[in-house]
Amino acid sequence: MAVQNNLGYGFYWEYNEDGGPMPVTEVTLDTNISVSEGDPIAIEADGYANVAGSNSSIYGFALEDITGAASTYKDVAVVKATAQAVFSGYTDGAGAVTNIGDATDITGSTGAFTIDDDGTTHAVIRITKLHPVSDDYGTNAQFYFKVLKSQIYGAG
Question: DSSP 3-state assignment of 97?
């Protein structure tokens, strides 16, 4: 079962290279944190989850929308960024065949994350191939990718 990204923003689990099931867990968000489905999630030093920044190691990606509230910790379902997990997302620019194999950045904020197809400062993900939803390369192409800077199996 693949979670298809029809929204244009965010990152979604597609499959595991070993054929295994979607690696889902729940994490507890820090207080007053809102997340959207597809947002990258990081576990902070205090053990609570937050939306990952463009240079953060990634624990996984949110599977649901959560609205934060002051002084309230909320749980969110997350698909973990394991070594076998393959995800998809759209580029923020003109994705090209030359992006295949690139270690790139992510960009955006809650509800509006994309692959930064020409950003290589943080090398958070590696683009693996064009997603079949995209009929060609170009503006906002959708790609498959693997997480390089993962909190699950080590930061790259």
Answer: helix
Phi and psi dihedrals of 98, rounded to 5? -70, -15
| Residue 48: per-residue pLDDT | 97
Task: Give the CA-trace dihedral at 17, 20, 21, 27, to 10 degrees.
Answer: -80
Give me the helices (H) in 4-145, please: none
Split at pLDDT 50, 70, 90, the class of 4 is: very low
pTM, 2 dp = 0.91
- pLDDT tens digits, one per residue of 80-107: 999 999 999 999 888 888 889 999 999 9
Six-digit token string for 151: 């909190």
Sequence-distant (≥ 6) Cβ neighbours of residue 63 within 8 angstroms:
3, 24, 37, 76, 77, 78, 79
CB 61 within 8 A of CB 109: no
Give residue 94's pLDDT.
83
Q: How far apart are CA 150 and CA 60, in angstroms?
A: 8
CA angle 9, 14, 18 (to 5 degrees): 150
State how far the Cα of 81 lies from the Cα of 84, in Å rounded to an integer. Answer: 8
pLDDT given at position 38: 96
